Amino acid sequence: MQQSHRQHANAADIRQERSVRLLWTGGWDSTFQLLRLLLVHRKPVTPYYLKRERRPSTTIEIATMARIRGALLERFPETHELLHPTRFFDVARLAPDAAIHDAYEHTLQRTHLGRQYEWLAWFCTEQRIDEIELCIHRDDKAHGVLEPFVIEEEEGDGYRTHRFDARHRGRRADAAELHRLFRHFSLPLFEVSKLDMAREADERGWRPIMDMTWFCHDPIRGKPCGICNPCLYTIEEGLGHRLPRLSRFRSALYRTCLLPFKAPLVATLRMLGLRRADD
């Protein structure tokens, strides 16, 4: 009995090892990539989700992924064998890596880069993950930071992705630091915009599932707030219709009356040491 259980566990480990690792949040970009992997390329996928308990949207994101998984398996039952259970990890439990932290802090001195890229690198290092898909896309702020350093690669069967070109490490200090942060990641959506994803989703009949995705970090009564960065980016990237009317009104008011004063206020708080550089 124990031997049978071990054999079953070993078989599951092998299947997981052969699958594509994907950082999935239940958001638009990572869900689009999940659908591409499962329905276009027919690749097995193991989703990874890093929980941040202090973020108000965490519970909604987890519930969203469960709903999407259920809808996907109901509508496309052939994905049952391809979509593996999601692996959950807690950001608060990650062990900080001093070299990655230094690389991130030095990068912040030149450009803005979200704090999540530091702890994602911690996670990959801690879990000894050599490659996992990260859905940075053309509209992302990180795209401009990484664009000079990534190359496109063909993996066969029409599957293409982008990766950080390690040859840049010895040429520039900033390249070496960025390589330390992004060397673990495959970037399959690097040259794809949100509107590109919307068009393909419509062409392939995926829109009902894509419309289930979530993006807001600070929901108000279960609805997108309209003023957090993901809400603002959603509007900027041409998908503002996804916010309810009240949220769009709140966003317009915020962008007109408050957002122009945010940058000088944040700069003052950082100068006084009352706010971290990445907040």
Brief rundown of the structure:
InterPro entries: Rossmann-like_a/b/a_fold. With 279 residues, this protein is mostly helical. It has helices at residues 2-18, 28-40, 58-75, 98-108, 116-127, 141-146, 173-182, 194-204, 207-210, 229-236, 245-257, 259-271; strands spanning 20-23, 45-51, 87-90, 132-133, 150-154, 160-164, 185-186.
Write up this protein.
The protein is mainly alpha-helical. The protein folds into 2 domains: 2-214, Rossmann fold, CATH 3.40.50; 216-279, no CATH class. 49% of the residues lie in helices and 10% in strands. The protein contains 12 helices and 7 strands. It has a 3-stranded parallel sheet with strand order 1-2-3. Strand 1 (20-23), helix 2 (28-40) and strand 2 form a beta-alpha-beta unit. Helix 4 packs across helix 7 (173-182). The longest helix has 18 residues, at 58-75. It is globular, with a radius of gyration of 20 Å. The model is unreliable at 7-15 (pLDDT under 50). This is 7-cyano-7-deazaguanine synthase.
